[in-house]
Amino acid sequence: MPIVIYKGQEFQVHPKVYKPAEDSFLLLNNLDIKKGEKALELGTGCGIISIVGAKSEAEFIATDISSKALSCAKENAKNHQVEEKIEFRKGNLFQPIGNERFDLIIFNPPYLPVSGDETLDNNLDAAWNGGRNGRKFIDKFLNQIQNYLKSKWRFFFVQSSLSGIQETQEILKKKNFQFSTKTKKISFEKLYLFMVEKKTQ
């Protein structure tokens, strides 16, 4: 099974599970996870983000729509001895969460614009296919996020310059959210990490 190494730590990645890349590392390198926080990661993939976060003594729930991804993430959590700190649930976006609320929510969504004739019928397609304009999951996420946040909260998500950065900024402003961004240029696009929190009065 392929291996990804992050800061000397090895993570197995099943061939049919999204392999952590620049977007994953942009998130990982900028996460500030506090001890005792209740955190949620949507679309955990191989589990690398939740596992690194759980080592900071946070309590994690990690979801994914793919059974193969969840199996891979559970195995990695066991190998890193944090399996008791992460609860894995199968489902799309917030569907498996119920009424729970979190201090921190993390999402590396499918964000690439894909036309119908480009769509592939496999598990990996779901990891990057953001629909015709790349916003299929980003918009759903931003529309629902407030229902799952505690009174003091933060959330982080990644998107591509190809999927409407200005539109995302306008949505966050309308919701009166305070946010900052970090970027990373890769071949044909720029990745944006949005770091969002409740606006202080």
Annotation keywords:
201 residues; alpha/beta; Rossmann fold; seven-stranded mixed sheet; two-stranded antiparallel sheet; transferase
Could you describe the 3D structure shown?
- With 201 residues, the protein is an alpha/beta fold.
- It has one domain (3-198): 3-Layer(aba) Sandwich (Rossmann fold).
- Helices cover 25% and strands 31% of the residues.
- The protein is built from 6 helices and 9 strands.
- Strands 5-4-3-6-7-9-8 form a 7-stranded mixed beta sheet, with helices on both faces.
- The radius of gyration is 16 Å and the shape is globular.
- The model is unreliable at 117-121 (pLDDT under 50).
- Belongs to the eukaryotic/archaeal PrmC-related family.
- Residues 24-111 form the Methyltransferase small domain.
- InterPro entries: DNA_methylase_N6_adenine_CS, Euk-Arch_PrmC-MTase, PrmC-related, SAM-dependent_MTases_sf, Small_mtfrase_dom.
